[in-house]
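In response to the reviewer comment on reproducibility (Comment 2.3), we provide here a single inverse folding case reported in full, input and output, so that an independent group could reproduce the run without further information from us. The structure tokens appear first.
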């Protein structure tokens, strides 16, 4: 039996969205409110149809079990900036976001198009409150500055038994985080300044952690600027890392409620220079950076099943990374060119490995972007290329009596996109033609790494993309 739609599993039914923005400005005060709303209904038709044949009348009354999903997203953002006590400036933002999906399950008589045995319930939802505020200019001095601030978030998630394999029970999760921070900037002359800072991190799931940092800046005569940063780098797991459950026919990504907070130290050194300060047709900005990171219990997405591919967040016992980078941005007339090069060594250790080592994997990263504006025909041509060097990743080896994580090496790969954008009607209409994954990357080879350096290929590699694709984008700016 077929009612003309059977054979399609998912069909969109209705979709609508809206955005709004209100601004207000006064003396020493400015505020805005932004709202976004999205609503979508999707019909899921069961591919199995029950014929319900009646031999006595030699007729059929086909039925199927269908479902309708209604998704709703609401975003509210409010911001105020200004001054109080004639000097202290403040910047406070607050937002409320809600994503909710309801499901209506029912049986459907196809001939009469009648619903019966209707059951409606909430399928899954997430609600979040976020706010951040900063307060500056406590001192009437150009040599000393102080900033106080806070950051808070409260996220609540819900999943019904229909949304996953939860042993027939619904799941309610909540994560609260409250941070308070302070930074000061002290100038010692026109060339040298330093900035100490501290942050207290409170969480409903983890013990309180403290982060401290100290940065210093020195300006040379010839336009060079040197900056150094040293600090501790603790981090608590976020809501997605703890509670994600994204499983369907194409994806399997899961959180881990047993995650521990990250703890570590970091150091950076930057040397920056702007060239051609008096030549308006040429602008070149270059920066050399060097860094060292040492993190215990680093949170990473690990592979817990190579085929079908499944991921889960887990702690890496020791993570070390050091390297250097060279970035450049060149602008000349209608041409803009960006080039970044970095070389780094990365070490990852899981103490649970039967025999682990902490050797470094060295890799080169290259990113570049070139764009050229053709004013006569209002057209912009741009290309993006990035080469990602090899890196370590942990895979759960299930071929043992006692499954455990083993370290694997993923080969490097390059990725290239390109687009042509043309404007019409005094820049009101934008037409973009583009291509993604021009190098047609699909799978990346991986190999297991033993303590003796022996490599073997455990599978056909990780699926990275589905090949080359093309797109057309049409945008019209409606000014009302």
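Designed residues, in position order:
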């Amino acid at each position: 039996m077929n009612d003309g739609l059977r054979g399609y599993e998912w069909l969109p039914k209705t979709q609508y969205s809206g955005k709004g923005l209100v601004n207000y400005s006064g003396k020493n005060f400015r505020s805005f409110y932004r709202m976004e709303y999205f609503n979508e209904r999707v019909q899921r038709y069961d591919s199995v149809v029950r014929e319900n044949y009646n031999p006595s009348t030699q007729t059929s009354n086909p039925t199927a079990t269908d479902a309708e999903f209604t998704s709703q997203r609401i975003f509210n953002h409010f911001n105020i900036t200004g001054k109080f006590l004639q000097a202290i400036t403040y910047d406070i933002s607050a937002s409320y976001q809600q994503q909710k999906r309801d499901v209506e399950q029912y049986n459907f008589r196809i001939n009469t198009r009648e619903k019966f045995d209707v059951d409606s319930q909430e399928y899954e939802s997430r609600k979040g409150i976020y706010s951040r505020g900063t307060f500056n200019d406590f001192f009437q001095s150009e040599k000393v500055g102080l900033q106080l601030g806070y950051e808070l978030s409260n996220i609540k998630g819900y999943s019904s038994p229909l949304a996953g394999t939860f042993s027939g029970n619904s799941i309610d999760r909540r994560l609260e985080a409250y941070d308070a921070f302070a930074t000061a900037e002290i100038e010692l002359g026109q060339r040298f300044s330093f900035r100490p800072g501290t942050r207290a991190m409170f969480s409903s799931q983890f013990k309180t952690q403290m982060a401290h940092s100290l940065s210093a800046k020195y300006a040379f005569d010839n336009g060079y600027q040197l900056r150094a940063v040293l600090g501790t780098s603790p981090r608590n797991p976020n809501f997605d890392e703890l509670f994600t459950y994204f499983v369907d026919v194409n994806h399997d990504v899961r959180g881990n409620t047993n995650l521990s907070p990250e703890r570590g130290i970091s150091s950076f050194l930057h040397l920056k220079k702007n060239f051609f300060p008096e030549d308006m047709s040429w602008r070149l900005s270059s920066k050399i950076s060097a860094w060292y990171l040492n993190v215990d219990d680093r949170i990473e997405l690990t592979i817990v099943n190579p085929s079908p591919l499944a991921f889960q967040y887990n702690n890496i016992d020791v993570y070390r990374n050091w390297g250097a980078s060279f970035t450049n941005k060149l602008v000349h007339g209608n041409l803009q060119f960006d080039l970044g090069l970095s070389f780094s060594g990365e070490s990852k250790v899981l103490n649970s490995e039967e025999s682990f080592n902490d050797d470094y994997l060295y890799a080169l990263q290259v990113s570049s972007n070139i764009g050229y504006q053709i004013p006569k025909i209002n057209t912009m041509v741009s290309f993006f290329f990035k080469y990602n060097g090899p890196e370590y990743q942990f895979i759960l080896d299930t071929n043992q009596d006692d499954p455990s994580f083993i370290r694997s090496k993923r080969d490097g790969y390059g990725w290239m996109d390109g687009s042509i954008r043309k404007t019409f009607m005094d820049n009101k209409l934008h037409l973009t033609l583009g291509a993604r994954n021009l190098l047609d990357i699909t799978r990346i080879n991986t190999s297991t790494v033993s303590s003796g350096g022996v490599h073997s290929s455990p599978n056909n590699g990780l699926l990275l993309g589905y090949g080359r694709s093309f797109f057309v984008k049409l945008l019209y700016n409606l000014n009302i």
